[in-house]
Amino acid sequence: MSRLNIPDIARVLSKWRDLPGCANPGCATKPLIQAVSKRNIGIRLFEQWFCSPDCFESGARHKIVELLSARDKHEKPPTLRMPLGLLLLSREILSHEQLKIALDRQRASGANFGDVVQELGFATQQQVTAAVAAQWACPVFSLGDRPLPAEVHIPRCLLELYGMLPVHFSQIGSRLMVGFVTRVQHHILYTIERMTSCTAAPCFITATEYRQHVQTLAVAATENEVVFEQTNAFGDSVAEIARLVRNYVSQAGAGEARFGMCGSYLWVRILGHQEMDLLFRMQND
What pTM value is reported for the model? Predict the structure, then answer.
């Protein structure tokens, strides 16, 4: 049997010393045991590593509180954009008289201006989509009959909530194109990037293409997504959510979990043999 000499022992000890320990400051596990265990057990939460389910649950509680505290700061303040009506007027799609009629109809009904001009027959869906894309300085993506990319999954309830779809994925740079119908949700794109490890870029698609393709996600959505409605964002609920996530992680034998906020939803992705998404609708009262 070969023996370790002093330089070899020093290198091994150095590696153990350099390994980050459990991210739970209250962890009672010995550092040496943590270092040995790190190769085979434990759970990651983004860049943090937790040596046991108990420590992970503690880390999950802190992460949830952090996300809830910062959720109103994610979205950038609105940027001044040319009103859609004036943009359609400048493109000679609407006349001055048609713009006045459409604005009067919008004020009376409270409907979306793009929908109003289409209902009145003043503009086509493609013209409205192109104008909205110009407002946001984004390209228009034509889905046609192409299937949605299978490489990246976004929970269906979020796709329906924000009127968006993953429309194209490129292996080069792991770039994901996300198509919106009415407006770009920058904080959602940021969360998608964190949860999927992709670079998410916005584009626009027509409402018809959105409705046609979102229906194809019905079966897949029920298999790997669990949605919890009406969850209180305060008190014992955070602890209950952390405990529930811990149970799902343990049952799946998962080694990693990720957390993100999408508006009123806390999105938890569990990464094991198969991806699973848990969504908690958070209430403030």
Answer: 0.83
Q: Using CA atoms, how far apart are residues 251 and 43, in angstroms rounded to an integer?
A: 13
In this structure, what token pair is assigned to residue 202?
């916005």
User: According to the 3-state scheme, what is the secondary structure of the chain?
Assistant: CCCCCHHHHHHHHHHHHHCCCCCCCCCCCCHHHHHHHCCCCCEEECCEEECCHHHHHHHHHHHHHHHHHHHHHCCCCCCCCCCHHHHHHHCCCCCHHHHHHHHHHHHHHCCCHHHHHHHCCCCCHHHHHHHHHHHCCCCECCCCCCCCCCCCCCCHHHHHHHCEEEEEEECHHHEEEEEECCCCCHHHHHHHHHHHCCEEEEEECCHHHHHHHHHHHHHHHHHHEEEEEEEECCCCHHHHHHHHHHHHHHHHCCCEEEEEEECCEEEEEEECCCEEEEEEEEECC
Cα(196)–Cα(256) distance, integer angstroms: 12
Give me the residues paired with residue 49 across strands: 44
Q: Which two tokens stand for residue 244?
A: 């529930």
Query: Where are the domains positioned within the chain?
Result: 84-135
Q: Per-residue pLDDT for the chain (285 aa), expressed as one digit of tens each?
A: 455 555 555 554 455 455 567 899 888 765 555 555 554 578 999 989 998 899 999 999 999 999 988 876 655 555 678 999 999 999 999 999 999 999 999 999 999 999 999 999 999 999 999 999 999 999 999 988 888 898 899 999 899 999 999 999 999 989 999 999 999 999 999 999 999 999 999 999 999 999 989 887 755 555 789 999 866 655 568 999 999 999 999 999 899 999 999 988 999 999 988 889 999 998 764
